[in-house]
Amino acid sequence: MQPTTLITSAILLIISIQQVVHVASEFLPEDSRLNTIELATKYKHPPLQFDVVTEDGYILALFRLPGRSKVPVLLVHGLGDSSDTWLLRGSTSLAITLANDGYDVWLANVRGNRYSRRHVHLNPDKDPAFWHYSFHEIGYYDLPAIIDTILNTTAAESLTYIGHSQGTTACYVLGSQRKEYNSKINVMISLAPVAYVHHTPPLISFLRELSPVIEQVFKVLSIHEVFADNTELGKAIHRLCPLPIIGYIVCVYGLLFPMTGSDFLELEPEFSQIGFTHSPAGTSSRSMFHYAQVGNRKKFAQYDYGGEGNVKHYNSTEPPVYRLDQVTMPVALLVGRNDNLSTVPDVELLKEQLANVVYYNVNPNWFCNHVDFIWGLHMSDYLYPQIYEVLDSYKHF
What we know:
The protein is an alpha/beta fold and 397 residues long. 43% of the residues lie in helices and 12% in strands. The termini are far apart.
């Protein structure tokens, strides 16, 4: 076959794929096209939006679904996710379920995602410094600003914190680094908690061990933002993964389940068309590499800049370890048996080091994985009773 024929065939293939994606997108569920405000409004809880400015200048979108509870409930998403994630199951999602029951629900968006890609001075498209953060800065800067905004707005003395994945990691950072905030959280509910990650299965461990090489490649190529709506990888995921059949096979069975653990009963094809149009929502590459460092070093510690870099940042050749015994807020740990990212052995290690674990539950469903805690079809059966058991132990109304 002549080169011109090959090129022509390749162009025609690309055009045909684009046409399929375009046609398929017209038949996606309505919720795949709605943002946080539109989703919450559709499910009868029109939200209020607050712009929260952190000490280091990031502007974060915070949404409130007003309720009558005296104690606000803050939901904090995981790595590369957004406030959308708490609404994607519609009337049975956690945010709407809590709002229906009268809780004053607040939905956070941490720095770098589609709702918080803003800064007082830095331009995320031009200034690499915008992306020089990980879960440390989220815990040290974002969470205090968000919590103070909520408490100042509501005049409440404390709030209930529900975090998923990175949303739990950041809260452990907060409790250990800014100890005054322990008293501002009446209970912290950790869904798929993540601090230690060195018991992860082979695929994750392989990527983790390869991460120093990948990080160097990212530095050479100046890749600072990943999985965002405007990145090529983000666009590919949002276009390919919602496609019927092929998108489900490639993205759920080929990518998601190997990373998070398999549970096809909780993530049906129809929902994946909604989930993958909203997630991922963007983050920094450093956020991923920080987790890899934690796993490789088997220490829950601050970001490792290397010998000289560590001396510059910490006045030590080693990054400081987070003191989990300083996290004195009451903590509930909810774990999945089939979670590849928040494994039972890693959470057991976390449990031993936290100062005030008041509740611990390993989900009896052997297939419960990392995303079931936010996207599972039957959350009301296997998750909400545990959450409400904790909520009922602390006065909210």
